[in-house]
Design a protein that fits this description.
Length: about 600
């Protein structure tokens, strides 16, 4: 429903602002207003890639000027036309309004609610700006200026009742009409910005939960984790906004759709807030009951009002929400089933060890990088590969790429390397950890860093074996400057870097904060390099020169025979289509096509 709000807010905000062109030109074709609104929407969505912080700096002065203008105009109209409108602050008038009008006045609440919609979008920026900034802005600027603006329009309408349809623009003094129109149009894009940013945030959270097809997420700020840009969703939102703007006959239908979306978002938010108060904040039940009762009285009143207008445009957000719900549910179901298949079918170490050093196959020169989502164990794709092909590379590295909820992972902490099985198997695992801002800019660079850490692992493993009976070598001891600086490069020369390394058991990876180091002195390469180490390093170098192949699994999920028709449609068509159009792992990892090998599997659910 929030995604639907993100589609409808730009449409109604921009279209309403652009409608000011027609006020002084009543004979103008409505199509001109729609074209202007569409052009503004295209410009708005084209700015999204700059990020919320940069767009915020651009729009913040406009927003402030907008509120000051409507507040000032409202106060001027109250003073000029009828100061008695201030009596409207008495709640007695809402009772009289509803009691004398019956059903018609009750259903009009759906339209009246549009006077407060848009203010809730301010709180959609909680992930992008400090809470105190939003509280101050709403309390000192937004709320009083809105009250003044509506009071001014009410005072104007007392003397100009035939101007109800466009009271806002009609109530603006003629001398400042066009400056206010320009600011209003710019401010309409700002109101849209908050819901667009909120939509991006919801998509990102759905991605993290495995509830949405893989799309590209660009983080635009170093300071705030929530400031993101999703290109694919941005252009989809733009197309849907344009379709809504051009497809509806008038603003009233868009208003009905917008009101339905906002009321349902508020209602669901309140219900979720109750859970937070009970389970997280552990508030007293009386406070929870008081909050729930007061909130539901107001929100349910508006909900019942908008339900009468579902057939007048209110069906649009329901259709949008239903479509996204189906997509997210089917994707989550297929993703969970595929991951369960990989977890339950992963190969045991006993099976690997039973194959012997050659794995029962011909070991051809080269290095095979097998990509997997499993951080432990041997993936089923490997057994599937060697069962159907008579050869495997001389060196096999299982690569697991994990994205952590941090801005960046330092280079010295990025790779965790371990060995699987005995040395003569030449099988390793490498977990590459990236922050949300880190990118695979060049595959060659990723390969180089991976192999540098692989060679470093072999050297330090030899150091561990050579120093196992000495007090000079420690894994968990205190960190020293020499230990963090002195490392060996591929040619046996001393280099200086920072590196955390973990040497663990065969089937687990445990990050170690303190690196492997030497307490007293840093030995030279001749002292710590054994003949076995030199031979393995030479073997790894020769395999690297022979070529590197990236092996990726492509698990196809299909419905079992005899499944119900809706399951076959969901899995064989909808989920298959979503997998086809979403970003491939090879694109995410920037794997060159000339060295990519896809291994297909079919899994029935």
């Amino acid at each position: 429903m929030m995604i639907g709000d993100g589609i409808l807010t730009p449409a109604i905000s921009v279209l309403s602002a652009a409608g000011g062109i027609k006020v002084n030109n009543p004979h103008m074709n409505n199509g001109v207003v729609v074209v202007v609104a569409v052009l503004i929407l295209v410009g708005l969505f084209s700015l999204q890639h700059y990020g919320t912080d940069k767009v915020g700096w651009l729009f913040a002065p406009i927003v402030l000027l907008w509120f000051l203008l409507i507040g000032g105009i409202g106060i001027f109209n109250v003073w000029k036309y009828d100061i008695r409108v201030l009596k409207a602050f008495s709640p007695l008038y809402i009772y009289r309004y509803l009691s004398r009008g019956g059903k018609d006045n009750w259903t009009s609440l759906g339209g009246i609610m549009l006077s407060i919609t848009g203010t809730e979008a301010l709180f959609a920026d909680l992930a992008h700006f400090p809470v105190s900034a939003i509280q101050i802005a709403f309390t000192l600027v937004v709320f009083p200026c809105l009250l003044a603006a509506y009071c001014g329009q009410a005072a104007y309408l007392i003397n100009h009742r035939d101007h109800v349809s466009d009271a806002f623009y009609r109530s603006i003094p003629e001398s400042i009409y066009w400056p206010v129109f320009i600011v209003a149009t710019a401010a309409a894009t700002v109101a849209s910005q908050a819901t667009i940013s909120a939509t991006f945030s919801i998509i990102k959270q759905a991605l993290a939960l495995g509830c949405f097809p893989r799309v590209k997420v660009v983080h635009t700020s170093k300071k705030f984790l929530g400031q993101i840009y999703v290109p694919d969703i941005n252009w989809i939102l733009m197309i849907l906004c344009i379709a809504v703007t051009a497809g509806f006959e008038n603003k009233r239908q868009i208003g009905n759709a917008y009101g339905t979306a906002v009321v349902l978002v508020m209602l669901v938010t309140t219900l979720l807030m109750v859970l937070i108060m009970i389970l997280v904040w552990r508030c007293h039940w009386i406070l929870v009951l008081l909050f729930t009762g007061l909130s539901l009285v107001v929100e349910c009143a508006y909900l019942f009002a908008v339900l009468f207008k579902v057939n007048q445009g209110g069906w649009v957000p329901l259709v949008i929400a239903g479509a996204f719900l189906i997509i997210m549910y089917i994707w989550h179901y297929g993703t969970v089933k595929r991951y369960e298949f990989e977890m339950h079918s992963k190969v045991s170490m006993a099976w690997i060890l039973g194959l012997g050093p050659s794995l029962g196959l011909v070991r051809v020169p080269g290095i095979g990088l097998v990509y997997t989502e499993l951080a432990s164990g041997v993936p089923h794709i490997f057994s599937h590969f060697i069962t159907n092909l008579p050869a495997i590379h001389s060196v096999v590295v299982f690569v697991c790429v994990k994205y952590l909820p941090v801005y960046t992972v330092p280079e010295e902490e990025r790779f965790l390397v371990k060995r699987i099985g005995p040395k003569n198997f030449h099988i390793f695992r490498c977990v590459a950890r990236y922050g949300y801002k880190d990118l695979h800019k060049k595959d060659d660079d990723f390969e180089k860093k991976l192999f540098d850490n692989l060679f470093l692992f072999v050297r330090l493993e030899a150091m561990m074996e050579g120093c196992s009976d000495s007090d000079e070598y420690s894994i968990y001891g205190q960190q020293t400057q020499q230990s963090r600086e002195a490392l060996l490069d591929n040619n046996g020369n001393t280099t200086y870097s920072n590196m955390d390394l973990t040497i663990t058991s065969v089937d687990s990876i445990v990050p170690v904060k303190s690196p492997i180091h030497v307490n007293n002195t840093v030995r030279s390469s001749g002292q710590v390099s054994s003949q076995t180490e030199s031979a393995e390093l030479e073997f790894l170098n020769s395999c690297r020169d022979a070529g590197v192949v990236h092996i990726m699994g492509n698990t196809v999920v299909m419905a079992r025979r005899g499944s119900r028709f809706y399951k076959r449609i969901a899995i064989d068509y909808v989920y298959a289509f979503l997998r086809k159009i979403c970003r491939e792992n090879s694109v995410i990892f920037n794997v060159p096509h000339e060295s990519l090998l896809n291994v297909g599997q079919v899994f029935f659910v």
